[in-house]
Amino acid sequence: MLLNCYHEELLDAGCDEAGRGCLAGPVFAAAVILPRDFIAGELNDSKKLSHRQRCELRLIIEKEAISWAVAEVDNIEIDQINILKASFLAMHRAVEKLIVRPGHLSIDGNRFNAYPHIPHTCIIKGDGKYMNIAAASILAKTHRDEFMERISISYPHYQWHQNKGYPTIVHRTAVITHGLSPYHRKTFSITDPQLKLF
């Protein structure tokens, strides 16, 4: 069972990203502040949920959260600053967009660049421990999936509507056949045969 949030005394925003391991598209991040009495039975790490569950939970989260925001860093910026820094930047942008300023940030993972004047705690596998981080993982994932499905219409041979930009065999083969799109991350080893397949 997930706990509501990490910090009980301060208004705590859960933060998570999606798309870090992709070959194409932006990295998305979300920041979510949930009410203390928030209840959503299926809420969990987005990777453990079905597409239907994520979409249903997104509606609940966006309706009932005290504040939520989603932001992105595109592939051009990723190539300029690297994917780790881009993930942190996307989280910073999401926090900046929150209508309600949090007193603490709960970050999924083991590293983070501190956001000015707001303390944070990094929590390994936090999206499986705290509701607000799980909620952020769902928003980041669903918003990013929508973006990839939308641009897939213009670049159908990469099949982003299915693989969402991850390095599947179909995706990598399409890159070899058709070349890179304007959305590909040029600093990633797209055709490396040792690259992990999804």
Short synopsis of the structure:
With 198 residues, the chain is α/β, with parallel strands linked by helices. The protein has a domain at 12-143: Nucleotidyltransferase, domain 5, CATH 3.30.420.10.
Show the helix and strand layout.
Blueprint: E1 12-18, E2 27-33, H1 51-64, E3 67-73, H2 75-81, H3 83-97, E4 104-108, E5 120-123, H4 131-152, H5 160-163, H6 169-178
Parallel strand pairs: 1-4, 4-5
Antiparallel strand pairs: 1-2, 2-3
Helix pairs in contact: 1-4, 2-3
Describe this structure as you would to a colleague:
This protein is an alpha/beta fold. It has a domain at 12-143: Nucleotidyltransferase, domain 5, CATH 3.30.420.10. Helices cover 36% and strands 15% of the residues. The chain has a 5-stranded mixed β-sheet with strand order 3-2-1-4-5, sandwiched between helices. β1 and β2 (27-33) form a beta hairpin. α1 (51-64) packs across α4 (131-152). Residues 193-198 have low confidence and may be disordered.
Jot down its keywords:
198 residues, alpha/beta, Nucleotidyltransferase, domain 5, five-stranded mixed beta sheet, 6 helices
Number of helices: 6
Indicate the percent of residues in helices: 25-40%
The overall average pLDDT, rounded, is: 92
Q: How large is the share of residues in beta strands?
A: 15-25%
- The CATH superfamily of the domain at 12-143 turns out to be Ribonuclease H-like superfamily/Ribonuclease H
The N- and C-terminal alpha carbons lie at a distance of 28 Å
Q: By helix and strand content, what is the structural category? A: alpha/beta
**Widest sheet: strand ordering:** 3-2-1-4-5
Q: What is the level-2 CATH architecture name of the domain at 12-143?
A: 2-Layer Sandwich
